[in-house]
């Protein structure tokens, strides 16, 4: 039986995904400093090209600041429908070929190719798949191949832009050793600063610190860091079709035809599970609405949407589905809402046209809900 240490894991990452889609739509943008985000001074940068990064620009930076750093940058408002469509296109290419894959975000995938070397080489197979994705989608994509998800992701980052890299089994620790600690996934500025203050600059030094000392410094996060520094990661590739949906439903105390009440319930339920999405750092790409009438007949309708976790966008889709589905004047017994096709992501990359104030508002709302419960703050309904 194969052990976890003998796995073969590939990581695919669509390079500068939003920027690449914009360049695919308009080839004149290639090679230019390109910013994707809102046009107002209070908007933020959702994504930027490599050319823009040379000026110190990064995602989540205020657009006004980015344009001060690079006044000649081109700004595109963002087309999340196009990004979602291209993400689904690449997903279908991978799904047609890979024995087991996980869609970890709108532009990232992990493939478990364990055992494939018995029949043909994983490196050759992944190279051919990468070539197929580039040819069919027109998008650049980088590839890392290693024995676990952690090392394959780092290898992908090292292979960018539009390249590939493999790390042989047994060479994980030496591959990571010379890198700055910031190159380990989930090592943010704060953690890196704590390590730097203690003289820990590279992964090799981090890997040599006694585990109990790291735990004393950083708690459970210290244990995770030690494992990463030593190239250890036993997390499985989670099959995409098994990604959980988030749903809620409400059976009313009495069957009703009160439209004001029904719309209020749609708002309440949508806000509830949209908050759950953000809690889990997830975006949804599909909304389903269920209605059960007083005679127990149940009808459902769903729609694919641009990936999001924002209340106001999801509520608009839910209300649209309700208007299309509730086509007769009959008492309603139950309403259910489900968000599926979940991928990793958050509201900061899905609100292309929103301002810093809107992002700050969502953060403040979620802070209150985290502290006092999801029902502590809800939209007023006037429908």
Automatic annotation (TrEMBL):
Its main location: cytoplasm. GO terms for cellular component: cytosol. It catalyses: DNA(n) + a 2'-deoxyribonucleoside 5'-triphosphate = DNA(n+1) + diphosphate. Its EC number is 2.7.7.7. The keyword Nucleotidyltransferase applies. Mg(2+) binds at residues 13, 107. Monomer. Belongs to the DNA polymerase type-Y family. This is DNA polymerase IV. It comes from Chitinophaga agrisoli.
